[in-house]
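Late entry, S-adenosylmethionine complex.
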Amino acid sequence: MNVKPFVKWVGGKRQLLAKITPLIPEAFTRYIEPFTGGGAVFFSLSKRLQDGQIPAWLNDINPELVNAYQIVRDRPDALLADLHTHIHSKDYFLSIRSLDRQVGGLSSLTPVQRASRFIYLNRTAFNGLYRVNAKGQFNVPFGQYKNPAIADADTIYSCSKALQKVKISCSSFDKLLPQTNEGDFIYLDPPYIPLNKTSYFTSYSQTGFGHTEQQKLADLVRDMDKRGVRFLASNAYVPELNNLYSGFTIIEVQATRAINANKDGRHAISEALITNIL
Ligand SMILES: C[S@@+](CC[C@H](N)C(=O)[O-])C[C@H]1O[C@@H](n2cnc3c(N)ncnc32)[C@H](O)[C@@H]1O
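Prediction complete; structure with ligand written out below:
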């Protein structure tokens, strides 16, 4: 059975797993995700990776997310004990959220408390969004959920098991991709190219992700391809892909997304899977 991610993440790949899984090579020596987010693809593969003793490396630029992965891996009992102390109310939510606006607020927390804050906010904030403003402050409103699963022991323990022996790092993709080798399989799920200017969801991190980063990513992917590294990438299905990824296989797939909190709600949109495997 698939392991369920311990965070809800915008752009989560759970609904595309049926399209992604068949494209994953049968054999590879290392599994790497530079943009892990909720890690839906990693968790769905984790049993296979563990059974085959295939090393995995998960990376993301978001330090709170990366700390949460490390704590889920190493301290699941302490994390669950702390998660049980949270209260589900708007006032309490706002007080926990505001810790990153106070001098020394976040740094006064232990790594376990920081992971617990992160998971609490993820479970109780609107749409499970993680969004920060230009100062790096979490700014998603209270989600008004009736009964959010704040301390979900089954999920935390199954993710913890899946993460044993996994390398977890916090850096930008451009530092990581040059460290890949022939035989590795890389799954890349970067922030997407915008469908139009208003739909650009770039606020996973303080730094944003624009055209320059998309071009840098495509250049590094081409470099990996030349070195015999196999990759599968997701992105929005937009004409720009034909330039960025010319010469690679580009497959159009349908997904339902609620990327913006706009009044139209969820939309069926085309996404692309790009690979050098086929
Ligand atoms: C689309 S999400 C990944 C979704 C994920 N695959 C899932 O299934 O939930 C993109 C991720 O890239 C991360 N990110 C943004 N800029 C980055 C960078 N320069 N280097 C590495 N990660 C970055 C964000 O923090 C975010 O978690």
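The pocket of S-adenosylmethionine is lined by residues 9, 11-13, 34-35, 37-38, 40, 60-62, 172-173, 189-191, 204-205, 209 (CB under 6 Å). Will revisit in the morning.
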